[in-house]
Write a structure and sequence with these properties.
Elements (H helix, E strand, L loop, with lengths): L10 E5 L3 H6 L5 H9 L2 H10 L4 E8 L7 H24 L3 E5 L7 H13 L7 E8 L1 H15 L7 H6 L11 E4 L18 E4 L9 H12 L18 H12 L9
Parallel strand pairs: 1-2, 1-5, 2-4, 3-4, 5-6
Helix pairs in contact: 2-4, 4-5
Bound molecules: 3-methylbut-3-enyl trihydrogen diphosphate (2 copies) and magnesium ion (MG).
One 3-methylbut-3-enyl trihydrogen diphosphate binds next to strand 2.
Length: 262
């Protein structure tokens, strides 16, 4: 049985990057890299479930990935299909709620049916919320949300809550932890609204070499970070130093003081 994580992660998101470079470094095709990368997904899902993560969102195909060679795009489509076929029973048995977020209109009909079928079968599941971001772009999602709100509420001013409520999967919470494999440090149009206060973790490990043990270590490591959300540290007490703080405040209010002080 696993050591339990006092978990502050309601929502973990992963940019599964580095398949192509991993394969090219081994004189294989990028397609081979994706095939190998797809084998890792199940064990990471399993580990997230074991660690009681509420939602796991995996970035599998971005709106920008449409600009890749057709063969590579088709491979990514087939791998999604293969994943669903292979994992369907296990997803249902483990009470996992499966959803795909993004524009999947260009996927083959068979793959779309598999997606809708599994989404339907697991819609009342109470376990891990597993989301595949496929044909997904953060900017598209925000624009869609705004347009959807305007349509329903013409003339009304949009609030943060309204925007959140009209996202593709509104019930998943803000991202607590965003992991990117592959060594690049960018967010590549992923969950732009939801990562406003996410902890970020970048690892050099290319996705095909990512392991459940590294995933687990990251969660435990980042769990030690203090998330302050713009407030002061929990241990800081202004009261203890109140007279000193007041003195400092008088100093800046005194117009005769120079900016540099003395
Ligand atoms: C990530 O691996 C998978 C997808 C983008 C679908 P890449 O294919 O981007 O691999 P690198 O970053 O080129 O190594
Ligand atoms: C992000 O990786 C998209 C996915 C992992 C699906 P990319 O490889 O497409 O991102 P960039 O091009 O490095 O920003
Ligand atoms: Mg990449």
């Amino acid at each position: 049985m696993n050591e339990q994580l006092e978990n502050q992660f309601k929502h973990v998101a992963i940019i599964m990057d580095g398949n192509g470079r991993w394969a090219e470094a081994r004189a294989h095709t990028r397609v081979w890299g994706h095939i190998r990368g797809s084998r890792i997904v199940s064990e990471i899902v399993e580990e997230a479930d074991d660690l009681n993560v509420e939602s796991l969102t995996l970035y599998a195909f971005s709106t920008e990935n449409w600009s890749r060679p057709l063969l590579e795009v088709k491979t990514l489509f087939s791998l999604l299909k293969k994943f669903i076929k292979k994992e369907k029973k296990r997803i249902i048995a483990n009470d996992i709620r499966f959803k795909v977020m993004g524009d999947i209109s260009a996927l083959p009909d068979e793959t779309k049916s598999l997606i809708y079928d599994l989404e339907g079968l697991t819609k009342n599941a109470n376990g891990l919320k597993l989301n595949f971001a496929f044909g997904y772009g953060g900017r598209d999602e925000i624009i869609k949300s705004v347009n959807c709100f305007i349509k329903k509420n013409p003339g009304k001013e949009l609030t943060k809550e309204d925007l959140s409520e009209n996202l593709l999967i509104p019930e998943i919470k803000d991202v607590d932890l965003l992991i990117r494999t592959g060594g690049d440090m960018r967010v590549s149009n992923f969950l732009l609204w939801q990562i406003a206060y996410a902890e970020l973790y970048f690892t050099e490990t290319k996705w095909p070499e990512f392991k459940r043990s590294e995933f687990r270590d990251i969660l435990f490591k980042v769990n030690e970070r203090e998330r302050r959300f713009g407030a002061t540290r929990k241990t800081d007490s202004l009261e203890e130093n109140e007279s000193k703080a007041e003195e400092n405040l008088r100093y800046i209010s005194d117009s005769s003081s120079s900016v540099r002080g003395n």
